[in-house]
Amino acid sequence: MISHIFGWSFDQLDIIVKRRLCESLYREGRTVEAMEILRNMMKTSDEDTQGSKTNADWIADFIQKCVMTRSERVGDGAVGSSKHDETVTQSNALS
What gap in Å lies between CA 63 and CA 18, rounded to an integer? Predict the structure, then answer.
């Protein structure tokens, strides 16, 4: 409210705080929560913030990092599964 009265903008500060929160959640392995905050941040930020190259680059990098982490975790989960063991057995049989 005070920001509207005096014409101050705290949007960039808010974005920085949300970025830090996303990074912290990511480091803790809570990527789903981090992505939800990112989605909310993108939905509620103003046009200047959305159009900022710095923010766009950070968002793209962060999304890529989360996608890669998710892929690695899914792959790691498959290694211990019986489905993975069957695939390896079938592959060895074909060799």
Answer: 14
> Which tokens belong to 81?
């599964």
29: left (phi over 0), alpha (psi -120 to 50) or beta: left
> At residue 70, what is the residue type?
R
Which amino acid is residue 71, in one-letter code?
S
Q: Where are the domains of the chain?
A: 11-94
Amino acid at 86: E
Q: What is the pTM (predicted TM-score) of this model?
A: 0.61
CB 17 within 8 A of CB 11: no
Contact 10, 3 (CB under 8 A): yes
pLDDT (tens digit, 9 = 90+) per residue, 34-72? 999 999 988 887 777 777 888 889 999 999 988 887 777
At 82, give phi and psi (nearest 5°): -70, -30
